[in-house]
Automatic annotation (TrEMBL):
Acidic residues composition bias: residue spans: 330-341
Location of the protein in the cell: Membrane
Annotated source species: Heterocephalus glaber
Family: Belongs to the DHHC palmitoyltransferase family.
Enzyme Commission code(s) on record: 2.3.1.225
Comp. bias (Polar residues): 345-355
Protein name: Palmitoyltransferase
EC class (word): transferase
Segments of this protein annotated with the region Disordered: 326-355
Record-level Gene Ontology MF annotations: protein-cysteine S-palmitoyltransferase activity
Length: 355
């Protein structure tokens, strides 16, 4: 009886949380719908007197609005991509792992399972765990600590993280955004960036075209009618959102230029050779192509064009001779550099080709 009551309460709370998670999206939708009404009807059709000016304003406005709404829709309803089945533990491996009580043996089991997978990042908190300071023995142990999700029961691919809100592991997870009620990752990061860009453009266009009429209302050159309040408030809202959005967009542009995610910017990824904050930095142009693809005609259109499958990514290399894939692709099936000596102080990374 008590157990059933607890389950019902838990289900009710989970349902309420799912409903409330759509409140930020609803707020954005209502603000956008009001801005559409205020701009199209109260400004263009009522306030603007010149027919030519009306047509020009409406054409450019709707062109921006279509891409703005399209990218917002894609950001919301493009589901986060999860690791494929080969990264999940089999039923037998799962039973063995859960029944094993010794942590060191569990780590070794995960390391053995990860040998056949293109996984090169390890657990660690970044910055301080380097061979120079802690010695080679600790570094070898660090390289053997495979990233594992005990909730999804899978070995995490590089750049994959578990989202507690979505309750799943997300490939190349950037962050969970409440304003789109979705987890931003490999499958929809391009759409999220485009949404920010078109949001900035949308607010900027509204502010610049409304400003002259704001001045006219302020000076009393136009009659004080109902449209006045819509126009004044429209300028205020556009400027307010523009400032916040341009800061957020600028930050993500910086992340793209360095080929980083938000999580990687706050927590340095750890590779088999140690922490490296620029481990995925391939250079400015290639970093952009990692998000938008090689074909530039798709860069401004919300169509999936990011290269790869989200499970493996090219890595920066200081020395191509350390490239495990150029040397032999069968290295995934052999012992992964278990006996390989790394020179002290070296932070070079293996260059991985996308699969």
């Amino acid at each position: 009886m008590r157990r059933g009551w607890k389950m019902a309460l838990s289900g009710g709370l989970r349902c309420c949380r799912q409903v409330l998670s759509w409140v930020p999206v609803l707020v954005i939708v209502l603000v956008v719908l009001w801005s559409y009404y205020a701009y199209v009807f109260e400004l263009c059709l009522v306030t603007v007197l010149s027919p030519a000016e009306k047509v020009i304003y409406l054409i450019f406005y709707h062109a921006i609005f279509v891409f703005f709404a399209w990218t917002y829709w894609k950001s919301i309803f493009t589901l986060p991509q999860q690791p494929n089945q080969k990264f999940h533990l089999s039923y037998t491996d799962k039973e063995r792992y859960e029944n094993e009580e010794r942590p060191e043996v569990q780590k070794q089991m995960l390391f053995d399972m990860a040998k056949k997978l293109p996984v090169y990042t390890r657990t660690g908190s970044g910055g301080q765990f380097i061979q120079n300071h802690l010695g080679r023995e600790f570094s070898k142990k660090l390289r053997k600590t495979v990233r594992f999700c005990d909730r999804c029961h899978l070995i995490k691919p590089d750049r994959c993280h578990h989202c507690s809100v979505c309750a799943m592991c997300v490939l190349k997870m950037d962050h969970h955004c409440p304003w789109v009620n979705n987890c931003i990752g490999f499958s929809n990061y391009k759409f999220f960036l485009q949404f920010l860009a078109y949001s900035v453009l949308y607010c900027l266009y509204i502010a610049t075209t409304v400003f002259s009429y704001f001045i006219k209302y302020w000076r009393g050159e136009l009659p004080s009618v109902r449209s006045k309040f819509h126009v004044l408030f429209l300028l205020f809202v556009a400027c307010m959102f523009f400032v916040s959005l341009v800061i957020l967009f600028g930050y993500h542009c910086w992340l793209v230029s360095r080929n980083k995610t938000t999580l990687e910017a706050f927590c340095t990824p750890v590779f088999t050779s140690g922490p490296e904050k620029n481990g995925f930095n391939l250079g400015f142009i290639k970093n952009i192509q990692q998000v938008f693809g090689d074909n530039k005609k798709f860069w401004l259109i919300p169509i999936g064009s990011s290269p790869g499958d989200g499970h493996s990514f090219p890595m920066r290399s200081m020395n191509e001779s350390q490239n495990p894939l150029l040397a032999n692709e069968e290295l995934w099936e052999d012992n992964e550099d278990d006996n390989q000596d790394y020179p002290e102080g070296s932070s070079s990374l293996a260059l991985e080709t996308e699969t």
